[in-house]
Amino acid sequence: MRNRFSDRLIVVAVALFAVVWLIPVVWVLVMSFKPDEVLMRSTAGFLPVPFTIENYARVMTVAKVPNWLMHSVIVSFLMTFIVLVISSMAGYAFARLDFPFKRPLFVLVVAGLMVPEQAIFIPLHTMFADWGMHNTHTALITPRLAVPIGVFLMTQFFRSIPRELEEAARLDHASHATIFLRIMLPLSVPALTTLGLFTFIHGWNDYLWPLVSATSKDMYTVTVGLASIQGNFGQSEGLGTLMASAVFASAPIMLLFVIFQRFIVAGVAMSAGK
User: Fold this and answer.
1) For the residues of the chain, what is the DSSP string, one character each?
2) By residue range, what is the domain housing residue 214?
3) For residue range 215-255, what is the model confidence (pLDDT) as tens digits?
4) Would 150 be classed as within a structural domain?
5) Where, by residue number, does the polypeptide cross the bilayer (predicted)?
6) What is the pTM of this model?
7) How many domains does one find in the chain?
Protein backbone atom coordinates (compact mmCIF):
# COMPACT_ATOMS: atom_id res chain seq x y z
CA MET A 1 0.00 0.00 0.00
CA ARG A 2 2.83 2.37 0.86
CA ASN A 3 4.56 1.61 -2.44
CA ARG A 4 1.40 2.44 -4.40
CA PHE A 5 0.96 5.69 -2.51
CA SER A 6 4.59 6.71 -3.04
CA ASP A 7 4.37 5.85 -6.75
CA ARG A 8 1.26 7.98 -7.15
CA LEU A 9 2.91 10.80 -5.23
CA ILE A 10 5.90 10.67 -7.56
CA VAL A 11 3.64 10.70 -10.62
CA VAL A 12 1.74 13.73 -9.28
CA ALA A 13 4.99 15.56 -8.52
CA VAL A 14 6.40 14.82 -11.99
CA ALA A 15 3.13 15.97 -13.58
CA LEU A 16 3.26 19.23 -11.65
CA PHE A 17 6.85 19.86 -12.71
CA ALA A 18 5.87 19.09 -16.32
CA VAL A 19 3.01 21.61 -16.16
CA VAL A 20 5.30 24.27 -14.71
CA TRP A 21 7.86 23.59 -17.46
CA LEU A 22 5.22 23.71 -20.20
CA ILE A 23 3.66 27.02 -19.15
CA PRO A 24 6.37 29.22 -20.81
CA VAL A 25 6.29 27.02 -23.94
CA VAL A 26 2.52 27.35 -24.27
CA TRP A 27 2.76 31.08 -23.58
CA VAL A 28 5.30 31.56 -26.40
CA LEU A 29 3.15 29.50 -28.77
CA VAL A 30 0.02 31.50 -27.94
CA MET A 31 1.78 34.85 -28.35
CA SER A 32 3.09 33.80 -31.76
CA PHE A 33 -0.51 33.68 -33.00
CA LYS A 34 -1.57 37.05 -31.57
CA PRO A 35 -1.41 40.34 -33.50
CA ASP A 36 1.35 42.71 -32.47
CA GLU A 37 -1.07 45.50 -31.67
CA VAL A 38 -2.75 43.23 -29.10
CA LEU A 39 0.57 42.22 -27.57
CA MET A 40 1.58 45.87 -27.26
CA ARG A 41 -1.33 46.35 -24.84
CA SER A 42 -0.95 43.08 -22.91
CA THR A 43 0.86 39.73 -23.16
CA ALA A 44 -1.43 38.00 -20.65
CA GLY A 45 -3.71 35.13 -21.56
CA PHE A 46 -3.29 31.58 -22.80
CA LEU A 47 -5.80 31.75 -25.66
CA PRO A 48 -4.75 33.08 -29.10
CA VAL A 49 -7.62 35.57 -29.34
CA PRO A 50 -7.67 37.30 -31.76
CA PHE A 51 -5.91 34.72 -33.98
CA THR A 52 -3.46 35.49 -36.79
CA ILE A 53 -0.70 33.77 -38.77
CA GLU A 54 0.75 37.06 -39.97
CA ASN A 55 3.70 36.71 -37.60
CA TYR A 56 4.82 33.46 -39.27
CA ALA A 57 4.27 34.92 -42.72
CA ARG A 58 6.47 37.87 -41.76
CA VAL A 59 9.27 35.56 -40.63
CA MET A 60 9.16 33.59 -43.90
CA THR A 61 9.28 36.78 -45.98
CA VAL A 62 12.83 37.42 -44.79
CA ALA A 63 14.86 36.66 -47.93
CA LYS A 64 17.54 34.46 -46.36
CA VAL A 65 15.40 32.33 -44.04
CA PRO A 66 15.15 29.41 -46.54
CA ASN A 67 18.95 29.44 -46.94
CA TRP A 68 19.47 29.50 -43.18
CA LEU A 69 17.06 26.61 -42.81
CA MET A 70 18.90 24.65 -45.50
CA HIS A 71 22.26 25.20 -43.75
CA SER A 72 20.83 23.99 -40.43
CA VAL A 73 19.42 20.87 -42.10
CA ILE A 74 22.72 20.06 -43.84
CA VAL A 75 24.84 20.67 -40.74
CA SER A 76 22.53 18.79 -38.35
CA PHE A 77 22.02 15.73 -40.56
CA LEU A 78 25.66 15.34 -41.57
CA MET A 79 26.81 15.87 -38.01
CA THR A 80 24.34 13.29 -36.72
CA PHE A 81 25.32 10.68 -39.32
CA ILE A 82 29.08 11.04 -38.77
CA VAL A 83 28.73 11.07 -34.97
CA LEU A 84 26.67 7.87 -35.09
CA VAL A 85 29.31 6.16 -37.24
CA ILE A 86 32.24 7.24 -35.06
CA SER A 87 30.54 6.65 -31.71
CA SER A 88 29.16 3.21 -32.63
CA MET A 89 32.52 1.99 -33.92
CA ALA A 90 34.42 3.39 -30.95
CA GLY A 91 31.82 2.06 -28.51
CA TYR A 92 32.05 -1.43 -29.96
CA ALA A 93 35.84 -1.32 -29.80
CA PHE A 94 35.88 -0.26 -26.15
CA ALA A 95 33.16 -2.74 -25.18
CA ARG A 96 34.27 -5.86 -27.04
CA LEU A 97 37.80 -5.60 -28.44
CA ASP A 98 41.14 -5.87 -26.69
CA PHE A 99 43.86 -3.46 -27.77
CA PRO A 100 46.82 -1.67 -26.14
CA PHE A 101 46.03 1.21 -23.76
CA LYS A 102 42.31 0.46 -23.95
CA ARG A 103 41.51 1.54 -20.39
CA PRO A 104 43.60 4.77 -20.40
CA LEU A 105 42.09 5.75 -23.74
CA PHE A 106 38.58 5.21 -22.44
CA VAL A 107 39.37 7.29 -19.36
CA LEU A 108 40.70 10.01 -21.66
CA VAL A 109 37.49 9.94 -23.70
CA VAL A 110 35.32 10.18 -20.59
CA ALA A 111 37.54 13.00 -19.29
CA GLY A 112 36.50 14.94 -22.38
CA LEU A 113 33.10 15.35 -20.74
CA MET A 114 34.71 17.66 -18.20
CA VAL A 115 36.12 20.09 -20.79
CA PRO A 116 33.68 22.92 -21.56
CA GLU A 117 33.42 23.58 -25.27
CA GLN A 118 33.88 27.31 -24.71
CA ALA A 119 37.40 26.61 -23.40
CA ILE A 120 38.60 25.53 -26.86
CA PHE A 121 36.87 28.19 -28.94
CA ILE A 122 39.96 30.35 -29.42
CA PRO A 123 42.19 27.46 -30.62
CA LEU A 124 39.40 26.21 -32.89
CA HIS A 125 38.79 29.65 -34.36
CA THR A 126 42.50 30.21 -34.95
CA MET A 127 42.97 26.78 -36.51
CA PHE A 128 40.07 27.10 -38.96
CA ALA A 129 41.06 30.69 -39.75
CA ASP A 130 44.60 29.56 -40.65
CA TRP A 131 43.13 26.89 -42.90
CA GLY A 132 40.73 29.39 -44.50
CA MET A 133 37.75 27.18 -43.69
CA HIS A 134 35.42 29.59 -41.94
CA ASN A 135 32.05 30.18 -43.61
CA THR A 136 31.94 26.56 -44.82
CA HIS A 137 29.87 23.56 -43.81
CA THR A 138 33.07 21.73 -42.89
CA ALA A 139 33.93 24.34 -40.28
CA LEU A 140 30.42 24.18 -38.82
CA ILE A 141 30.40 20.37 -38.62
CA THR A 142 33.93 19.20 -37.82
CA PRO A 143 34.35 20.59 -34.26
CA ARG A 144 31.13 18.85 -33.20
CA LEU A 145 32.17 15.35 -34.29
CA ALA A 146 34.12 14.55 -31.12
CA VAL A 147 31.29 13.54 -28.77
CA PRO A 148 32.57 11.80 -25.61
CA ILE A 149 29.04 11.20 -24.32
CA GLY A 150 28.25 9.37 -27.56
CA VAL A 151 31.20 7.00 -27.18
CA PHE A 152 30.32 6.44 -23.52
CA LEU A 153 26.65 5.77 -24.30
CA MET A 154 27.42 3.27 -27.06
CA THR A 155 30.09 1.55 -24.97
CA GLN A 156 27.68 1.04 -22.10
CA PHE A 157 25.00 -0.22 -24.47
CA PHE A 158 27.27 -2.73 -26.21
CA ARG A 159 28.47 -4.00 -22.85
CA SER A 160 24.86 -4.76 -21.90
CA ILE A 161 24.41 -7.08 -24.91
CA PRO A 162 24.99 -10.75 -23.97
CA ARG A 163 28.32 -12.11 -25.17
CA GLU A 164 26.63 -15.40 -26.10
CA LEU A 165 25.38 -13.74 -29.30
CA GLU A 166 28.92 -12.98 -30.37
CA GLU A 167 30.20 -16.39 -29.40
CA ALA A 168 27.48 -18.04 -31.48
CA ALA A 169 28.45 -15.86 -34.45
CA ARG A 170 32.14 -16.74 -34.04
CA LEU A 171 31.25 -20.43 -34.21
CA ASP A 172 29.99 -19.64 -37.71
CA HIS A 173 33.37 -17.97 -38.44
CA ALA A 174 31.92 -14.45 -38.42
CA SER A 175 34.47 -11.62 -38.32
CA HIS A 176 34.34 -8.63 -36.00
CA ALA A 177 33.03 -6.52 -38.88
CA THR A 178 30.23 -9.00 -39.57
CA ILE A 179 29.30 -9.21 -35.89
CA PHE A 180 29.28 -5.43 -35.61
CA LEU A 181 27.23 -4.79 -38.75
CA ARG A 182 24.77 -7.69 -38.60
CA ILE A 183 24.31 -8.28 -34.87
CA MET A 184 25.40 -5.35 -32.74
CA LEU A 185 24.09 -2.48 -34.87
CA PRO A 186 20.55 -3.88 -35.32
CA LEU A 187 20.35 -4.47 -31.56
CA SER A 188 21.57 -0.95 -30.81
CA VAL A 189 18.77 0.91 -32.64
CA PRO A 190 17.36 2.40 -29.38
CA ALA A 191 20.77 3.71 -28.31
CA LEU A 192 21.59 4.97 -31.80
CA THR A 193 18.23 6.73 -32.01
CA THR A 194 18.80 8.39 -28.65
CA LEU A 195 22.31 9.52 -29.55
CA GLY A 196 21.19 10.63 -33.00
CA LEU A 197 18.36 12.72 -31.63
CA PHE A 198 20.57 14.34 -28.98
CA THR A 199 23.20 15.09 -31.62
CA PHE A 200 20.65 16.52 -34.04
CA ILE A 201 19.20 18.72 -31.30
CA HIS A 202 22.67 19.96 -30.39
CA GLY A 203 23.51 20.67 -34.02
CA TRP A 204 20.21 22.42 -34.71
CA ASN A 205 20.25 24.54 -31.54
CA ASP A 206 23.97 25.32 -31.63
CA TYR A 207 24.44 29.08 -31.59
CA LEU A 208 27.84 30.04 -30.26
CA TRP A 209 30.13 28.20 -32.70
CA PRO A 210 28.11 29.11 -35.84
CA LEU A 211 28.11 32.69 -34.59
CA VAL A 212 31.92 32.57 -34.41
CA SER A 213 32.60 30.59 -37.57
CA ALA A 214 29.88 31.84 -39.94
CA THR A 215 30.65 35.52 -40.38
CA SER A 216 28.77 35.80 -43.68
CA LYS A 217 24.98 36.04 -43.64
CA ASP A 218 24.87 33.58 -46.52
CA MET A 219 26.27 30.86 -44.21
CA TYR A 220 24.17 31.55 -41.11
CA THR A 221 22.28 28.66 -39.58
CA VAL A 222 18.66 29.21 -38.61
CA THR A 223 19.48 30.00 -34.97
CA VAL A 224 22.09 32.62 -35.81
CA GLY A 225 20.04 34.00 -38.69
CA LEU A 226 16.84 34.46 -36.70
CA ALA A 227 18.80 35.98 -33.83
CA SER A 228 20.40 38.46 -36.22
CA ILE A 229 17.00 39.83 -37.25
CA GLN A 230 15.36 39.78 -33.84
CA GLY A 231 16.76 43.16 -32.93
CA ASN A 232 14.97 44.78 -35.84
CA PHE A 233 11.79 42.77 -35.19
CA GLY A 234 11.78 43.69 -31.52
CA GLN A 235 11.97 47.40 -32.36
CA SER A 236 9.74 47.67 -35.42
CA GLU A 237 7.81 44.48 -36.11
CA GLY A 238 6.76 43.48 -32.62
CA LEU A 239 6.77 40.74 -30.04
CA GLY A 240 4.54 38.38 -32.03
CA THR A 241 7.14 37.98 -34.75
CA LEU A 242 9.81 37.29 -32.15
CA MET A 243 7.69 34.50 -30.69
CA ALA A 244 6.93 33.14 -34.16
CA SER A 245 10.64 32.94 -34.95
CA ALA A 246 11.25 31.07 -31.68
CA VAL A 247 8.52 28.55 -32.50
CA PHE A 248 9.77 28.26 -36.08
CA ALA A 249 13.29 27.39 -34.90
CA SER A 250 12.21 24.87 -32.24
CA ALA A 251 9.36 23.11 -34.08
CA PRO A 252 11.56 20.49 -35.85
CA ILE A 253 13.14 19.48 -32.54
CA MET A 254 9.78 19.08 -30.83
CA LEU A 255 8.49 17.01 -33.73
CA LEU A 256 11.50 14.69 -33.63
CA PHE A 257 11.15 14.20 -29.90
CA VAL A 258 7.47 13.30 -30.20
CA ILE A 259 8.23 10.76 -32.94
CA PHE A 260 11.25 9.10 -31.30
CA GLN A 261 10.48 9.43 -27.58
CA ARG A 262 9.93 5.67 -27.23
CA PHE A 263 13.44 4.96 -28.53
CA ILE A 264 14.93 7.64 -26.29
CA VAL A 265 13.48 6.09 -23.15
CA ALA A 266 14.53 2.58 -24.21
CA GLY A 267 18.07 3.63 -25.12
CA VAL A 268 18.72 5.58 -21.94
CA ALA A 269 17.18 2.86 -19.75
CA MET A 270 19.23 0.06 -21.30
CA SER A 271 22.46 2.07 -21.21
CA ALA A 272 21.93 3.11 -17.60
CA GLY A 273 20.93 -0.41 -16.62
CA LYS A 274 24.47 -1.64 -17.14
Assistant:
1) -HHHHHHHHHHHHHHHHHHHHHHHHHHHHHHHTS-HHHHHH----SS--S---HHHHHHHTSTTHHHHHHHHHHHHHHHHHHHHHHHHHHHHHHHH---TTHHHHHHHHHHGGGS-GGGGHHHHHHHHHHTT-TTSHHHHHGGGS--HHHHHHHHHHHHHS-HHHHHHHHHTT--HHHHIIIIIHHHTHHHHHHHHHHHHHHHHH--HHHHHH--SGGG--HHHHHHHHHHHIIIII-HHHHHHHHHHHHHHHHHHHHHHHHHHHHHHHHHHH-
2) 62-273
3) 888 899 988 888 887 654 444 457 787 788 888 888 888 88
4) yes
5) 9-30, 68-93, 105-128, 140-158, 179-201, 242-265
6) 0.80
7) 1
